[in-house]
Amino acid sequence: MAESTAVKLDPRVQQFLEGGPKRLFIGGEFVEAESGKTFPTINPATSEVLAHVCEADQTDVELAVQAAERAFAVWSKVSPSDRGKLLWKLADLMEANLEALAQLDTLDNGKPIRETRHADVPLSIEHIRYYAGWTTKIHGEVINNSVSPNMLTYTRREPLGVVGQIIPWNFPLLMLSWKIAAALAAGNTVVLKSAEQTPLTALYMAHLIQEAGFPGGVVNILSGDGPNTGAAIVKHPRIRKIAFTGSTEVGKLIMRESASNLKCISLELGGKSPNIIFPDADFTKAVPGALLGIFFNQGQVCCAGSRLFVHKKVYDNVLADMSSYASKLKQGPGLDHSTEIGPLVSDEQYNRVSYYLNKGREEGANALIGGKPLDGPGYFVPPTIFTDVSDEMSIAREEIFGPVVTALPFSDEDQIADVIRRANDTEYGLAAGVWTTDVKKAHRVAHALEAGTVWVNCYNSFDASVPFGGYKQSGFGRENGSYALELYTQVKAVWMNLD
Length: 499
Ligand code: NAI
Ligand code: MG
Hints:
single chain; alpha/beta; Aldehyde Dehydrogenase, Chain A, domain 2
C-alpha cells in the first residue's frame, strides 16, 4: 500500500481554526465586526469551509483608522532602532511559527506545502528582516544651496501617516509582508485588508504582531471583500496613501476614488509577460525555467511568463520537452508532501480559467497538454500548453491567471527587433524573460523590453532588496529595496537662516 503523504496538521493551525469566527485586529485587540457579519473562507482543494471570518465594513474601517491615527502619534516617535527591533522580533516569531504559517497559507490558497515552506514563508521572514535593517538608514540630506553660505538647507524623510493596504489572494502572507514591512520601517501605521479568498494568515500574523509587542493600532488587519471593505478604505478621507496589488480593473477604480482626498497611490497590477527562448539558449535551464515561469503557484502570478516566444529552430524540441515535464507534474491537494501543482484559489478563478480554455479552443488553438478543467471536489485545472496561437487571440492578450501558457514561434535569424516588437505589443509591462547564452543579445533585449523586471536565464527570482513593479498598465511605484521607502515617506525641505 502506498504510504500516506498527507501533511499532519500542526496543532497551532488546528487551534487557530477552531472556535468562533476569526476576529478583526483593530487597535491591538481582536474584535468582532460592528455589524456582526461574517463570511466563510473555503479550502480550494476540497471546496469545504475552513473557517468563518468577521467582515469589516465602513464602521470598522473608521475604527481602524482612528486606532491607526492614535498609534501614529506613538509610532512615529519610537526610535528607528526600536522600530527595527520590533520588526526583527516579528520575523523571529514568524520563524518559530513557520510550519503553522505555511500550512495555513496552503489551506486557504491551495498552493503546495513545499512552496509555502520553502518560498512564501521564508521570503516573508527575510522581507521583514530586510526592512528591520532599513529603519536606521532612512535619511534626509544637507543641500549645498546657492542662496547664501549662511542658509542651511536640509531634507527630512517623514512618514505619511495612516496608510491603507489592499492585497490579493495569490501570495497571502508574502504580499502582507511586502506591504507592512516598508510602511512600518518608515514610521507609518497601517490599515491592511486581506483578500476575501485568503484571510487566514493575515489574522494569524495579527497574533504574532501582538506578541512581538507593537503598540496597539500600529497594524490593523481587516477581513472583507472589495466593494464593501476595500472601497471604504480607498474612500476614507484620513488615509494618506493606498498601496494596492490586484487586477488592473480595480487599480483603475482605486486611482479614480483616491482623487477624493488626493491620496498617494502605488499600484501593482496584472501582466501578460513575454518569456523569450532564443536558439542559443542553454535548454537545460530554459525548459525548466519556462515551466517555472508559468506553472509556479498554478500560474496565479502577476508576472507569470504566459506568452512563451520560442525560436522556430528549437520550437518543436522545446515544446516536446515542456509537455513531457509538465504532464508529469503531480497535481493534488496542497497539504500533500508530493504535490507539485495545487488547485486554483476559488470557484471564481476556476471558472475564469475554464472560460479561457474554451475560448482558446474556439479561437483555433490546440492544447498540447491539459486544456480541460478537472471535475471537483476542489478547483483543479491541469497545466495547459496552447500551440497554434496567434498574437491576436484573446488567450495571447488577456491575463488568464492560471496554469495556461501560449507558445508563439518566432523566426528572425539575427534581427531581434521583430520578437521584441511582439513581446512589447501589450498594454501590460510587469516582467519579461530572456534565454540566451549571447551576453550582448541578452543586454540588448533586456534594455528593449518594456517591463519593470527582466529576468535573463532565470525566471520568478525575487529578493527583498530588488525593486519590483510595472510599466504601462501593470501599475506604478516600486516595492522592495530602497525604492519602497519612497512610497512610504514624504520629503520635507527645511530652510534655516543662520544670519
Ligand atoms: P481584485 O483586483 O478584485 O482583488 C484584489 C484585492 O482588491 C482584494 O483584496 C479585493 O478584495 C480588493 N478589491 C476588489 N475590488 C475592490 C474595490 N472596488 N475597492 C477596493 N478594493 C477592492 O482581483 P480578483 O477579483 O481577486 O481577481 C481577478 C483577476 O485579477 C485575476 O484573475 C487576475 O487576473 C487579477 N489579479 C492580479 C493580481 C496580481 O498580483 N497582480 C492578484 C489578484 C488578481
Ligand atoms: Mg475582483
